[in-house]
Amino acid sequence: QGVSVLHIHGTNDENVPLNGGTGAMTGPRANWPAVNRGLGFFISGNQCSGPAETLRISSDTSCTVNRCGNNETVQLCLVQGGGHAWPGAQPAKWQINHGVNVTQSFDASDYIARFLLSH
């Protein structure tokens, strides 16, 4: 039995960089793997096949959906220009102070709820 995965990430995340490694605001001693490396594990393990489908979710967010063997999906939603933030939430003071982009055009809470309900 496979497992569905939803990963949401900002392309300008300086805490946990999309391509791995360290960013300007990464914590001490942290060195993150690339997001696609982790998702590749689930795409392979779930025996996803066929081309991934890219869906435009909002003006700045697209989700790539891989359909897999037993009705699982592995999804990566990218917020273009998004920083380390919860999409749709009000920016925290630290985010405002550091110029972190917190998109208001994509509601991550709603998208996650619909994802969970569909699985």
TL;DR?
With 119 residues, the protein is an alpha+beta fold.
Layout: helices, strands, pairs:
Blueprint lengths: L4 E6 L24 H11 L7 E6 L2 E7 L5 E7 L13 H5 L10 H11 L1
Written overview of the protein:
- By secondary structure, this protein is an alpha+beta fold.
- Helix content is 23%, strand content 22%.
- Strands 1-4-3-2 form a 4-stranded mixed sheet, with helices on both faces.
- A hairpin with a 2-residue loop joins strand 2 and strand 3 (61-67).
- The mean pLDDT is 96.
Characteristics of this structure?
119 residues; alpha+beta; 4 strands; 23% helix; globular
Radius of gyration: 15 Å
Cross-sheet strand order for the largest sheet: 1-4-3-2
State the distance separating the first and last CA atoms.
13 Å
Following the backbone from N to C, one meets helices and strands in this order, namely EHEEEHH
Percent of sequence in beta strands: 15-25%
Please, how many helices?
3
Helix content estimate: 10-25%
